[in-house]
Write a structure and sequence with these properties.
- The protein is built from nine helices and no strands.
- With about 200 residues, it is an all-alpha fold.
- It has one domain.
């Protein structure tokens, strides 16, 4: 990830922000953190606020698209493939329990981001409500990781110098493992609940 971003910055600097938009459209707190850390080094011309806005744009647009796919095609897909309902029943449970909190927080739950907007689109969450909450959540998420990466890189450079990338890589690896185990544990708990049927779409 670091090498890719450095390559783009060195040879195709003008593509950095479109790359961030494209990457975060699919997935991508890692690329935002890494770019934020590189911004803290001062070697490259990276505007942290520009980075945050690019990350916001990709994340927001991606999740809006997944929401509308779920809203338009989700119910027919669940009808055609009933086993898919079982796989996302835990997400339906979370949406029904507290839709506002779920929309605001799903970006922070490992392994949930890609499926969550699809499920929310099938549920009874209105277009306007999702648009507003998704806008707020994406803005907070993007600025948190962009500026978080920047200040993290600044402090790690002060403490560790060039060794910071090894420490950061290890930290990210451990965090991913812990988050993955927590996610699987939550899935097992929710799997024990009665299957949730997909609610009808609402305005």
């Amino acid at each position: 990830m670091q090498d890719l971003v450095i390559h783009v910055l060195t040879d195709y600097g003008f593509l950095l922000y479109p790359l961030i938009v494209a990457w975060t459209f699919i997935e991508g707190e890692t690329v935002v953190i890494v770019t934020g850390i590189l911004a803290s080094e001062g070697r490259f011309n990276i505007n942290v606020e520009g980075l945050a806005l690019a990350a916001f744009t990709g994340s927001f647009l991606g999740d809006q698209l997944y929401y509308y796919i779920g809203r338009k095609y989700g119910t027919p897909l669940l009808t055609r493939w009933p086993t898919l309902t079982q796989k996302v029943s835990w997400a339906f449970h979370l949406v029904k329990t507290n839709p506002t909190l779920f929309i605001l927080s799903f970006r922070w739950i490992y392994g949930v981001r890609n499926i969550a907007p699809f499920v929310i689109g099938i549920s009874e969450v209105s277009r306007l409500k999702y648009f507003i909450l998704n806008f707020i959540a994406a803005m907070i998420w993007a600025h948190s990781f962009a500026w978080g990466g920047y200040f993290l890189g600044w402090k790690l450079e002060e403490w560790l110098g060039e060794s910071k990338w090894f420490v950061l890589g290890g930290f990210i690896g451990v965090a991913v493992v812990i988050a993955g185990l927590s996610f699987l544990r939550q899935r097992r708990k929710l799997a024990q609940l009665p299957p949730a049927s997909a609610p009808a779409s609402g305005e």
